[in-house]
Amino acid sequence: MSKSKNIRRALAIGLIFSLSALALLISLAAKWDHEAKEAFSSGLWQLPSSVYARSLEVFAGSPVGQPQIVEELQRLGYKQEENPSSAGQFAIKDSNIEVFTREFTHWEGIEPSQKAVIIFKDGSIEDIKSASGDMIDIIRLEPPLIGHIYPSRKELRQLVKIAEVPELLVKGLIAVEDRDFYSHHGVDPKGIVRAMWLNLKAGKITQGASTLTQQLVKNLFLSPEQSFVRKFREIIMAFLIERRFSKQEILESYLNEVFFGQTSAGAIHGFGLASIHYFGTELKKITTSQMALLIAIVNGPSYYDPIRHPERAKGRRNIVLQLMEAQGVISSSEMQSAIASPLDAQAKRRRASHTHPAFLELVQQQLMENYSANDLKSAGLRIFSSLDPRSQELAENSVRKFLKDHKDIEGAFVALSPQTGDILALVGGKDSQFAGFNRALAAKRPIGSLIKPFITLAALQEGKNLASLLSDDPINIPLSSGKTWNPTNYDGENHGQVPLILALAKSYNQAFVRLGMEIGIEKVAKLVSSFSNSEIPSDNPSLLLGAIELTPLQVAQAFQVIAGGGFSIQPRSVLAVLDSNGTPLKRFEQDMKQLLDKDKAILTQYAMSAVMHMGTGATAALPSGFETSGKTGTTNDYRDSWFAGFSQDLLAVSWIGRDDNAKTYLSGATGALKVWSNFMKDSNSKSLNFHNFSKMDVKSISMMTGKPTDIACPDAIQIPLNTEVTLDPSSECVSSLTDPLITSFHEHQRAHPLIGKQP
């Protein structure tokens, strides 16, 4: 009786345990089924937004030389071959370039792959011809990828639809990784036995035992730990996913999820991005050999990395090709041809890892006006930016080179197009790869003598001209506190009566404080506020020596109005946005507002060019004949060093200082100007043209007296004037002239005379 009771008790306990285990299994299965359903229905992946630089446009008449185009092609990962035969290759033939461009999606449509010859003459592009000899108007090179706006996980992928994937790749993948994919229900017992036998027979692992569905589950939902519980969950979820979703849905998910390796930019997932990463081409265009290599890498992305371990990867690729032939996926001749093919993985991967965090921060700021943070981080947007990779590289190098021996001193740099407002380069600190404090956007610092061109402009608006005489004698200004302000000149001297253009060139403080007080502080503050799109207080006379705080980007915005001929254009970092499928979402058009009379802008540009010839900018190391305009800025105790200047098509602002606001012992000329000139001398920008003022009179003015004088006099400088301006009677030549910069500017103008108003 006792024995019978024990048996019944054991059976009861066993039944209860079994029912409990079954209930737990059902509960877990329901939970895991819900997880899978939610994941698939809401989208399996958070796709980071990809940010691209501008597309280089190549056309006849473009001043871009052969070295710059070769540099761009190398930046994009093009390979130099003797005879380019496929997309992503180029050759240098004498002075010409033969290139086979890649297809890419531009916001204006698909840019097709094409083979072309770029013909150069005298350092610029003369013609572009197709392979058949037809003329080509323009070629766009694909924009370089410069960074991503990431979700919580740094996973990079380019989604592909199953219909976009080559059928041969799908068949090859199934033949190697899961032969019975279309017949099993998530787990394949026969496949496990077959894999064990083939691996034993080969003496090494040639096939895995997990199905594609199991691999997908492991990658999407499970940790990499090896345990019975994890394996059990993998098997159950594989069954559940097979029950709920079609084979095509599972296969498409696998193709987009499988891991292909790690880069500094993030983890490479999916065949779509792997094709771009390793071969520089879209998945639909890869060869049989390349398909086999991608399938090979799946087995061990690090172990079979074709860049680091080419022989190992090639051996695995050949095994894949043999398996594809054995399964009837390819013929014996196709296998032999593919095995004979080179590995063909890029020797230099495309520079997606070289990010520009300061510029990307600006991109995010400007996009936040139109898109949510979640969209930017997870919707896979394709963002086409204004950044010019060459300009960015020049800017970063200029800042880093100058500051390498200056401990604790930092810098920032902004370059933009004055005609379009497009930001071409932006540097937030000497460590340009550090995504920390972005001084170009966030460091508000006193601008010092950068204020003087705006005082000059305000004076021109009030009826002054560049020959107007200013007093550079000492001045005492009573303050509301009861104290007196006594500004002095940098050189400690008083210079008496000086023409406005000379006062600006030499940056005479006393003359400009007097001029600003005469015009009115409020007018100067209002002008700078409207140009820089910032609030400038007007209750402090020290504003007239730049005691106002602006960021480098705001300074660039203010000077853009002068450089742009009086038209204000909001600085722009984003040109267009496409969705993850390449459909255009938004194109960022520019609004142009005229804030300034064009003649006043040109006169101010010319006055700032005098700074570069006979003033504080004369030490700029620029090529001979390269005409620019600019202004130095130095704040009290040498805490901030500024320079803002521009050519015809490029404006750049440089700032040097310390984050703790301590002294740098650098003036605008000994600090920021050097960074600026190092950037500008290699920028390939166009020289300003001051040789023809068709709407103005041109007079020769003595820099000593401010009166008209003979052009042959050594103190004579040509000055454009509005036609209504009348000057005092002429003066004689000054017998003694001790300033070599004035003499040099005089000689320059004799060689390049200005042309006044035509009769």
Shape: elongated
What percent strand?
15-25%
Spans of at least 5 consecutive residues whose pLDDT stays below 50 are 347-354
C-alpha end-to-end distance: 133 Å
Specify the CATH homologous superfamily of the largest domain: DD-peptidase/beta-lactamase superfamily
Under the CATH scheme, which architecture of the largest domain would be assigned? 3-Layer(aba) Sandwich
Question: What Rg is obtained from the alpha carbons, in whole angstroms?
Answer: 34 Å
Helical proportion, percent range: 25-40%
CATH topology of the largest domain, by name, is Beta-lactamase
Strand arrangement, major sheet: 11-1-15-25-26
- Name of the CATH first level of the largest domain: Alpha Beta
Q: What composes the largest sheet?
A: 5 strands, mixed
Descriptive report:
The protein has 759 residues and is of the alpha+beta class. It folds into 5 domains: 2-42; 54-148, 2-Layer Sandwich (Penicillin-binding protein 1b fold); 154-339, Penicillin binding protein transpeptidase fold (Orthogonal Bundle), CATH 1.10.3810.10; 414-680, DD-peptidase/beta-lactamase superfamily (Beta-lactamase, 3-Layer(aba) Sandwich); 696-751, no CATH class. It has a 5-stranded mixed sheet. Helices cover 38% and strands 18% of the residues. Mean pLDDT is 85; it is low at 347-354.
